[in-house]
Amino acid sequence: MKSKQQVSTMIRHGFISDPTISSFSPSRTFSSPSPSPPPSTTRPSQTQPQTQSLFDMMSEDQNRDARLSDEKRRKMQDRVKKLLEEASFSGGDVKLTVVGKEGLKVSMEVQKSVLADKSRFFAEKLRCDCGSGNGMSHSVEISDCDDVDVYVEAVVLMHCVDLNQRLRLIGDGAVSRVLNLLKVSAAIMFDLGVMSCLEYLEAIPWTEDEQEEIVSQLGHLQLHESATEVLLRVSSSSPSTAARADDIFTNLISGVLQAKDDKARREMKSMLSKLLNENVYNDSNKLDVSKDTLYHLCQRCISSLILCLSEANDTPERPDRGVLMSEIAREADNIQWIVDILICKRMGDEFVKIWAEQKELAALHSKVQIIYRYEISRITAQLCIGIGRGHILVPKEIRFSLLSTWLEALYDDFGWMKRGSKSVDKKLVEDGLSQTILTLPLLQQQVLLLNWFDRFLNKGDDCPNIQKAFEIWWRRAFIRKYSPEPDTSQLQITLMDYPK
Questions:
Q1: What pTM value is reported for the model?
Q2: What is the number of helices (H) and of strands (E) in the chain?
Q3: Could you tell me which of 221, 158, 220 has the C-alpha nearest to residue 193?
Q4: Mean pLDDT on 223-229
Q5: What sign for the dihedral angle of Cα 203, 207, 210, 214?
């Protein structure tokens, strides 16, 4: 027969009956930590150098770790002592011992009937009433516990009449403590404890960090239907279809595009951009705004912009001209916002073709005063930056068509773009334009860069400075001649059939 000391952990189902135990002291004890060696008080001699050796530094680290460990142990002892003082144990016939990994040991005399009634795990292990009629009791040890106080608190909960009221008194760090109680309750099949913990978690607010911890823990415990009510806060019981989610995204973005309060519009644009961009590198199965929705909204904004420009050109002396010009800038800003989302999501390729084909819009643009139209040229700058960074990949014909349609407008508006908008990064625009031009065939580079050369001489700082692109084209055209070399390798490929 096994001795008293040879008991297994609860997790390993190692419950034993001990015929040598007949009665226990009603006092509830827990062991004290082993005394730590007193810290050295020896001061270095005045004649010794005031430098620390590596050994001294390592010793200090070890002493600090020991102090932290002792502090944690002391706090846990205090919590255990308080729990046991509040416990309603009486007439215990089972000696339950909890041993922590750090060595803290707690013994309790608890009622077998309570353990068996509240925990299906205890009921199974204590099913044989070996103590009936002969004064025999059970000895149970739970070893290698991460947090002794949590196991003690779970046992205390079993003896409580009102578990929900008990959980209300937890105080600071409630979510983490209740999750720990939930984990222990699930391990020992304390069903009432599990349900009380879940009801508590469902009712209290969570921080975002706590939310991640709760979802992770519930998934790990695999409580399935029991945790449904808690998880309704973060997931719907009837999952939204992509179509329904897209309707919500459409309404939100449309609301921002049509907002009347400029300050609120800026704040909501910033918030939605951040939220939509969070999904860029996430699981593709997550619902997100669709490409079709974004392009539909882009087309709607372009149509509205064409209408505004047409009205501005048809009736230049209209009394509400200021309002109309504000609408032009607003629609251009709307397009910039949606294009920025498209580029971040790597969906901007098709828009380059759409923008390159806006010949009518480009013609109307040239007839409006620069002060009202330069926001439109920022769209072209956005696309050049995206192409220059490799975030937009389109054929060379479309890249050249984009510049053929909008480069003159960008040159004309560049001075106002720099002065009129704090968010425009002059160097970023110049680098993007340079890289876009340098992706084209050499003869197209020549046409565009010779045209820029004349422009820059006449406009100076009001024209983008793409001198580096000009230098690279010059070297490609006149200094370094590149031509494909014939393949002189002797690579041979032999096909062989292998027997089956």
A1: 0.70
A2: 20, 5
A3: 158
A4: 81
A5: positive
pLDDT grade, residue 40 (50/70/90)?
very low
- Which residues pair with residue 108 across a beta bridge? 96
Longest CA span, the chain = 111
Q: Which residues contact 124 (CB under 8 A, 6 or more apart)?
A: none
User: Could you give the angle at the alpha carbon of 145 between the alpha carbons of 139 and 151, nearest 5°?
Assistant: 70
The alpha carbon of 475 is separated from its chain's Cα centroid by a whole number of angstroms, namely: 46
The β-bridge partners of 107 are 29, 97
- 467-474 vs 442-459: helix crossing angle, rounded to 10: 140
pLDDT of 54 reads: 56
Cα–Cα distance measured from residue 2 to residue 461, given in angstroms and rounded to the nearest whole number: 92
DSSP string, 246-305: HHHHHHHHHHHHT-S-HHHHHHHHHHHHHHHHTTTTS-TTS----HHHHHHHHHHHHHHH
Look at residue 122 in the predicted model and tell me its pLDDT.
Answer: 84
Q: What is the DSSP string of 371-428?
A: HHHHHHHHHHHHHHHHHHHTS----HHHHHHHHHHHHHHHHHHHHHHHHH-TT--HHH
* CA 363/CA 341 separation, integer angstroms: 27
Contact 7, 139 (CB under 8 A): yes
Looking at residues 191-207, what average pLDDT do you find? Answer: 91
Parallel, antiparallel or unpaired: strands 137-145 and 94-100 = parallel
Of 48, 59, 100, 52, whose CA–CA distance to 79 is shortest?
100
Q: Which of 84, 209, 92 is nearest to 149 (CA)?
A: 84
Q: Is 173 within 8 Å of 209 (Cβ atoms)?
A: no
Stated length of the chain: 500
Phi-psi category of residue 477: left, alpha or beta, with phi > 0 → left and psi -120 to 50 → alpha: alpha
pLDDT of residue 58: 56
Q: Is the dihedral of CA 200, 202, 203, 209 positive or negative?
A: positive
Residue 324 pLDDT: 85
Phi, psi of 280 (to 5 degrees): -60, -45
Sheet with strand 105-110: strands edge to edge: 16-18, 137-145, 94-100, 105-110, 29-30
